[in-house]
Amino acid sequence: MTIPIYQADAFTNKLFGGNPAAICPLEEWLPDNVMQKIALENNLAETAFFVKNGNGYLLRWFTPELEIDLCGHATLATAHILFTELGYAGDAINFDTVKTGTLIVTRDGEKYSMNFPSRPPFAADIPEGLINALGGNQPKEVLRSRDYFLVYETEDEITNMIPDHALLAKIDTLGVIVTAQGKDIDFVSRFFAPAAGVPEDPVTGSAHCNLIPYWANKLGKNSLHAYQVSSRKGELWCELKGDRVIMAGKAVTYLRGSIEI
Questions:
Q1: Where along the chain do its domains lie?
Q2: Alpha-carbon gap, residue 101 to 106, rounded angstroms
Q3: CB atoms inside a 10 Å sphere around CB 156
Q4: Does domain 2-115+248-260 have CATH number 3.10.310.10?
Q5: Phi, psi angles (nearest 5°) of residue 131
Q6: CATH level 2 (architecture), domain 122-242
Q7: Same fold flag, 2-115+248-260 and 122-242
Q8: 157 classed as catalytic
Q9: pLDDT digits (tens, 9 = 90+) for 63-117
Q10: CA 75/CA 70 separation, integer angstroms
Q11: Is residue 77 a contact partner of residue 62, using CB atoms and an 8 Å limit?
Q12: What is the pTM for the complete model shown?
């Protein structure tokens, strides 16, 4: 069996920036264990698989370790491949997902705009070991949604943070978001998920489901400009719309190929 595979860098317009994702178009679903093995073999933060479904597509995402409920950058990368490589003719794509409902991606010039659910974080206790795993600096707030969400005073604390991924992997959570108000931008963030096989995710759309409602409330505005300050860096144009968040970014194709199974 031959399966097409693409790889694209999301939330950037430059190769080797943003967040790379693999994308596999399928005629029908492969067994779950086979998709998991492909994701492990690709060894990227996420591999997206999609199947045609009426006027839209069914979409699933796998890290090297497990299937996850929501992934922004691999959704944006999938839309980019459909628009630029596979001849999708419309301006908007509907992706139906099992755990997150329908996600809509719209093309606007060079940007792809994603409509995702808002997931405002709520106050939470600090789990044992988390602060030490992040280098020992005390955050000014600790919250949680799907992931732990730590707010710091300065952008430099986020940029200079050196986490201990072995310690982080022991925390009972999929991931950890760290964030602060930016110097020349609304906010910055980083995202760590070693327990899911992703020590640091370069640019994380799902984290912005938490970040956008938090910073919209703190800064008193619904339109926001953000950077995820990993080594690859990513840029997002964000908006809070009621119980939904809009994330827009660019993408560039890196690879076209095939998998032999």
A1: 2-115+248-260, 122-242
A2: 17
A3: 12
A4: yes
A5: -65, -45
A6: Roll (3.10)
A7: yes
A8: no
A9: 999 999 999 999 999 999 999 999 999 999 999 998 889 999 999 899 999 999 9
A10: 9
A11: no
A12: 0.91
